[in-house]
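Step 1: inspect the first sequence and its tokens.
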Amino acid sequence: MKKIICLYGLPACGKTTQANKLIEEYAYSYFGMGERLRAEVASDSSLGQKIKSYVEGGTLIPDDCMIEVIKNVGPEIKKNGIIFDGFPRMISQAYMLEDIIKEIDMKVDAFICLNVSPEEALRRIEERSKTNDRHDDKDANAIKNRMDVFKQESIVLMDYYRQQNKLIEINGEMSIEDVYSKIKEELERLENI
């Protein structure tokens, strides 16, 4: 099942948890945007220095920086398929991704939105912040910015994938196993279209 799957939703909606389950079962490559951005900042590279204030503030990173972060992902995708965790987040990034994967003659197969209420997302962020030291999970302004960005960008982005019949919406407030079963069910349905 070599696919390109994008997992999307509010912070702490369960994207990484579900990505890990898919990787374990199907051996996809993994691209976690948040993880890559934090690693870039930690490396103190010139790109990391450029994006540090955006990552820590929970604000959108300029497209020219995003291109730098994702430009070398092509070979990974061709080999195993890939799960994009938290990418794309806005319409310009969706176009950017299309351009990259067009070069390797592939397409996004599914854009899966895990729907949770803002209240549930905040509760989960609070829980998660007790067990990790991510700056963006502990800073109230960063959390608010991430939520606001999602609200502003989600309608256009989800419409883009809805028009291509690639949008799959799943109730992310179900149990982890129920969410995963639903994702698998939807991916199997895609196989048969």
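Step 2: inspect the second sequence and its tokens, then contrast the two.
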Amino acid sequence: MWYRALQTFLPPLMLAFRFRVVGKEEVPTTQGVILAANHVSYADPVFIGVALVERQLHFMAKEELFRFPVFGAIIRGLHAFPVRRGEMDRAAIRWCLHLLEKGEIVLLFPEGTRGDGVVLKEAESGVGLLAARSGCPVGPVYVHGTDHVLPRGKRIPRIRPVTVYFGRPVRLEAGSFHKASRWAYRRLTEQVMEGIAQL
């Protein structure tokens, strides 16, 4: 309910942010897709979601955010699901694979936490693991400007320009899904981060 309501009301409001979307045609429209984005603000999922308003996104959020009953209920309504950071969260992985099998879009932030908007942090290998197990493409995403809209420590958004860039999807080589190693997961994750940096 929350998600569909925001799909209706948010797009017109984006005009105030001089919101731009670049490379949207790179995102596959007929299959499950993993989107891997840089992370500089809690506003990132909102702007990426509006950029792909024709579809509904599902995204990981740190488990701690769900400990607040009201806020947890709201973000669940926006298709967020919890993940335990710093460890192999098998429940979160299974849910991702379920969504991808259904043809949904799953949004991940490989850095695992918010960065400074200048230098990308080292990424976790979970993106590569999900790509290998699902066989789905991974689309790099770069969000620019959200760190000025909702900076760290602020609760009230500011009106600042925002642009979301989508890059060409990355895939594991054909036939490598079932024999992929940790090295393959790491390499694919590195390729995705390179794609984000290029954007």
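Step 3: confirm your contrast with the notes below.
The chain has a mean pLDDT of 83. The first strand starts at residue 20 and ends at 22.
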